[in-house]
Amino acid sequence: MAVKKAVASGNWNASATWSPVGVPVAGDTVYSNGFTVTINQVVDLTGSATPVSAGSFVPGQLYRITTIGTYFTGTTNCIIPGSNTGTEASATPAIGDIVQAKTAGASLTGAATPVGGIVNYANAVVSAITGGGFTLPTSFNLTGAYIQSGTTNCLTISAAAAATLTNCTVVGSFASTSTRSIVCSSTGAITFSGASISGGRATGTSVTTGAHGIELTSTGVTSFSGCNIIGGIGAYGLGLLTNALTTASMSNSTIVGGQTGTSYGVYNQSTITLTATTTPLTALQAPAIYNASTGAITSTGNITATNFASALVSPNVSATVRVSGSLLGSVSGVPAAYCAKLLVNPAPTNAKIRFANDGASTYSDFIITSRLPVTTDVRSGTLYGEALTGTLALPAAANVRSGTLYGGITGTCNVPSASSVAAGVPVDATVGIAVLTAAAVTAAVPTTAQITTAVTAAVPTTAQINTAVWTTTGVTRSLTTAPPTAAEIAAAVPTTAQINTAVWTTTGVTRSLTTAPPTAAEITNAVWTTPIRTLTNTIPTAAEITTAVWTTPTRTVTNTIPTTAQINTAVWGTLTGGVARTLTTAPPTAAENAIAVRTNLATELANLDVKVSSRLATGAVALEVTAIKTKTDLLITDRLKEVATTEIVGKLLAQANS
To answer: How far apart are CA 264 and CA 217, in angstroms?
Structure first.
């Protein structure tokens, strides 16, 4: 979704043609900006279906209102598309209206969906000038575009182009006369599908000077399917002007006159045949179709006048006008069709002609139908046909014999035969002839066997009962015995005390299940932080425990099993000489024990060092050492050299033995 404007004349698919650079895509609003752009590719400008909120609007972009808000008022934020060309006009804040943004709309409310389009009017907000336009000389389709002219024709379909314009919105110029939003001069077949086509707001003085939605000057066949064609607001603002040389046809569409007496929905000034099949014609201030030539007009939809205009006008006696639908004049007496020559051909299956009664508020409808049901096929007392006014005066299907076709309707009333109705009772076009006899009554009463068969078929089997009764528990049980009694069920259900015991006795303490079980944090707190109690007696030895367990006859535990906290108190109270310790931390590690041992030995080792050092420091010890050294110095060591050592003796013995 962006705003694009041409900066040079050239091809649509050339990036250099556009500012910002790049080929327009779906949702973009495209300005010709005084240049001529040739559409040389398939173009789809369909906008997003996702609404954009006020505050995010792109100035210059077209939007379709989805939510009314403060943004869509005045001319400060948005205007009627194309009104930049003249005096800007405030948009009507109605859902579905297309507007042109001027500001982003910050701090305002409202929402709209972006609309893609091709326009050639001026827009000061995006610095686009009026003029230029778009041409389609070859066969490329155009989809989802809003198309509106400024001071010149906006889109020209020329040469031999055979194109389909799908879901496009075509609007005549806002302020410039003698303009056409689309001009078709092609020799190829042009198709408009699902288009909305309307005349402009500019006030013309003749058909030539009007601001039209589309003008046909082509020699190719032009068709409109599923389109809405409506006259404009300005005088001579035509939805469609036909100057074509071949057939123009409308099917499954609507054609409506405009808001001034000369703003016709369709204005035909050629000799072509204009066909409107299954297309209602409705006047507003102006006729839906005005045939200004000798061209033939064929209409097979309803034609409805207003108090201001006939829906179909054809003043030339040489023009052949054929209708095959209802002709509904206005209550003021304006006829539905004002024609010099009017033929009802083909004859409608069901239609009506409405004429005013008093010229103010009442009217009469005259029914045209070739298939009113005969009296014998209609329920007695039902009024229809000339006996009624209003709709088509046809009886309801429920009042017509089943299978009877009339006026495109099939009867649904089932009428019994006389033989099925009591004698003398009126039925159909006769009376009943049935007589109730004893034999007939007997024949109608079922036999015992028939009753048994019917009952047997209706009574469910044991398996079916089992399934219906027991499958809700997920287990199917056989009903071979009587269902359990209330007392049996009650007995099978454990009591609260039993449940408590089953759940809690592993801890030695029975607790009521009225609250949730303790959490891990609660258990930890109970084990480590509860005050410790001291055992008043010593802990029994292993031998005493063994004797008590194995040699004593069976004993009954009269007290509950001590808790972990109680065991802690008993153990530590004894081990510490009656002083309790709390296991608030983990037991000491091997490293912590080693440190404690070394700490305690440090004092003893220091005392030992003192003792040794003090003795070595006394003079007596020194004197004794000196005396010993004096005596050893007097020893004659020469004799020691002659003493045979163990090594020498060993060598001598070895020699002697060798």
So the answer is: 18
